[in-house]
Amino acid sequence: MARHSFHISTDWPGLRNDTGTLSSENFHTKISIPTEMDGPGIGTNPDEMLLGAAATCYIITLAAMLERSHIEKTDLAMTSEGIVEVQKGIITYKEIIHRPVLTLGPSTTEKDITLTKKLLMKAEQSCMITRAIKGNVTVKVDPEIHM
Questions:
Q1: E strand or H helix that includes residue 144
Q2: pLDDT at position 31, please?
Q3: Residues near 123 by beta carbon (within 8 Å), at least 6 away in sequence
Q4: Residue 122 φ/ψ, nearest 5 degrees
Q5: What is the CATH number of domain 46-146?
Q6: Which residues face 73 on adjacent strands?
Q7: N or C: which end of the chain has fewer CB within 10 A?
Q8: Max CA separation in the chain (angstroms)
Q9: CB-based burial label for 145 (10 Å; 0-12, 13-18, 19+)
């Protein structure tokens, strides 16, 4: 069994409505509480980071599945939405919706389209981040396919 470790460094010198930093080998950003939650909204925040983790995991997983299945794509872009609910002062991450827009190449067959529709859904189930949050956050896929 192979194991991998990922490392993040955080620094938070102030109080609740201050800012901190989040760093890894490949990025460095400011962090704070978002304005929607009465924070300063500087840099990114945990809600965006979770959404970003789910989105990047899904789109990379989908691209790998398309490649392994020899599906010709000319473009793949996506928007994702994270829905957070506040009830009685308790904040809960409820749902993530991925909206991939996939443009297939000119040599695409009906068989390729059928397989692509399956892969668009299977990528969500195969993504490591989606599996990590399963049972806590609902993840949906609302795809668009263009020729």
A1: strand 144-146
A2: 97
A3: 58, 61, 62, 65, 141
A4: -65, -35
A5: 3.30.300.20
A6: 104
A7: N
A8: 57
A9: middle
Output the pTM of the full model: 0.92
If you ran DSSP here, which 8-state letter would residue 39 be given? S
CA 80 – CA 91 distance, rounded (Å): 19
Two structure tokens written together for 55: 């989105």
What residue segments make up the domains of the chain, in order of their start?
1-44, 46-146
CB 137 within 8 A of CB 84: no
pLDDT at position 36 is: 87
Note the residue count of the chain: 147
**Cross-strand bridge partners of residue 80:** 98
The residues of the chain scoring below 70 in pLDDT are none
CA end-to-end span of the chain, whole Å? 41
CB contact at 8 A, 92 and 37 = no
b or e along 54-75 (b: 16 or more beta carbons within 10 Å of the residue's beta carbon)? bbebbbebbbebbeeeebebee
Q: How far apart are CA 96 and CA 91, in angstroms?
A: 15
